[in-house]
Amino acid sequence: MKNEFALLGTLAGTLISTGAWAQVSVQPSTDERIERLTNLVEQQQKTIKALEQRLNDLEMVGARGRGVAGGTGNSAEGNAGGAMTAAGVPSLAQEASPATPGATAAATAATATSGSDTPVVGSDARETQQQARVQSKDLVYQSEHAPLFERRLTIDSGFIYSYYDRRALSLSGFLALDAIFLGTINLNQTKSYTLTYDTIARYGLSDRFSMDFDLPLIYRNTNFLSGGAGGSASNLSDATLSTAAPGDISMGLYYQFLRESGAAPDVVGSIRVRAPTGRSPFGIKLVPADPNNNNLNIADQLPTGNGVWAVTAGLSLLKTYDPVVLFVNASYTYNIKRSVSDISSVQGQVTPADVKLGDTFGFGGGLALALNDRTSMSLAFNASISGSTQVTTAGVTQTVIGSRSNVATMTFGLNHVITKGWSVSAAIGLGLTPDAANYTVTLRFPYTF
Questions:
Q1: What's residue 236's pLDDT?
Q2: Burial of 126 by CB count in 10 Å (0-12 exposed, 13-18 middle, 19+ buried)?
Q3: 305: closest CA among 270, 281, 336?
Q4: Are 172 and 136 within one domain?
Q5: Cis bond leading into 323, ω under 30°?
Q6: Which positions ≥6 away from 54 have C-beta within 8 Å?
Q7: Are 378 and 368 a contacting pair, CB within 8 Å?
């Protein structure tokens, strides 16, 4: 009996030993656990990086909208995603044993990286980028749409350079036998450039009202070239005339009828009044530039203004499709009839008259594209069609021949944010019609206080 009990005891001991050995063999080694935990940590870090990238993308989209109100919801969504990631990471630390300090440290680092405190790291740089994006878009609003409706003062100063080159063929004689021209043929050429320095002050009266004031200073230089000196078409005469004087000052009021939201665009109406403070074009006398060439007569001075009061009503629409901004506008300018003391261009002659410049209808549109956080480019088309000028002398009204005009330009612009509140805008405009300038170059430096 003792032998049987001894045999049973030996068998039980063997089974227990075998079970323990099996249990030990099933239990993974420390290296295997470390390797598995390391793989899990790497997967979690990849997920964290993907969520951070998604958060940055959402913040960029929100900041490019008008204002940064939309960015708040995006940041909340990103933080919620980070919290979800962090909630899964502690399981790694729980699974790690004290013998695996490397895995525990990695899990703790992953938890700290993905928590809700992530925006604190580099928050100043991120805030600076958001301000740059908003300011870059503000440049598009101010140049193509309307001043900003905020209680801030903006001083926008810059230069506008325009170049004109006109050629005209003048015939003096008659046709013989309806086919042969007898007389002189002269080629007249006018090369002119205008440099305008103006300062525009903009201020938001409320969240819907805004105003601006424009004060221009103009320098004009014109070169006249004509043939026919001494009665010979091959002999040329030229003369250069220049002048510098203030231009016509103007003031505008803007009202925001509709704010951009959803499918609705931003709609702004405006009214602008222009005063005839520049040098008037009426009554300027023509004088001979060359005593040997009676074909070349030039003005004794160059005008820098239109000479009449004018009122312009406009409507502008803008819609954002990030990162593209679309805008269209239309305007109508009414030139007020004015009585002038002299309209004659003949020396020694004075002719009083009532002058009514032709009204102007303008329209245009284009788009702006954000290239990065600080730079955007724009493409715009603008056209203005003016009616004929009418002059009334001694009760008789006459239409000035050739006073109608059609000016169309295509403009390419570039806007860049230099520092907070200070930006630079450059544009080049190409004339598409004979009445437009050959080209125009604009360089402006708006600064917002």
A1: 75
A2: middle
A3: 281
A4: yes
A5: yes
A6: 78, 81
A7: yes
Q: What is the pLDDT of residues 172-231, one digit of tens each?
A: 444 444 555 444 555 677 899 999 999 999 998 888 899 999 999 999 999 988 776 665
Q: Indicate the residue among 75, 94, 121 that finishes a domain.
A: 121
Residue 15 lies in a domain: no
Encoded tokens for 435: 């009445």
Please check whether residues 95 and 154 belong to one and the same domain: no
Three-class secondary structure of residue 25 per DSSP: helix
- Token readout for 162 is 């325009």
For residue 76, being part of any structural domain is answered with yes
Helix, coil or strand: residue 263: coil
E strands, 228-265, where?
Answer: 236-246, 250-258
Same domain, 137 and 103: no
For residues 204 and 142, give the distance between their C-alpha atoms in angstroms, rounded to a whole number: 12
CA distance to 94, 104, 111, 312, per residue, from 91 (Å): 5, 10, 11, 69
Query: Concatenated DSSP letters for 77-143?
Result: HHHHHHHHHHHHTHHHHHHS-TT-HHHHHHHHHHHHHHSTTGGGTTHHHHHHHHHHHHHHHHHHHHH
Domain that holds residue 37: 22-121
Is residue 438 domain-shared with residue 293, that is, in the same domain? yes
Q: Are residues 135 and 106 both part of a single domain?
A: no
- Give CA–CA dist 383/171, Å, rounded: 32
Closest CA to 215 of 193, 245, 242, 192: 245
- 338 touches 354 (CB < 8 A): yes
Count how many domains the chain has. Answer: 2
DSSP bridge partners of 439:
163, 430
Specify whether the CB–CB gap between 353 and 343 falls below 8 A. yes
One domain, residues 116 and 138? no
Residues 185 and 55 in one domain: no
Domain boundary among 87, 104, 121: 121
Check if the beta carbon of residue 252 is closer than 8 Å to that of residue 212: yes
Distance CA 270, CA 116 (A): 46
pLDDT value of position 142: 61
Distance CA 256, CA 148 (A): 10
CATH code of the domain containing 363: 2.40.160.40
On the question of pLDDT at 123 being above 90, the answer is no
Do 323 and 431 belong together in one domain?
yes
Any idea what DSSP says for residue 290?
Answer: E
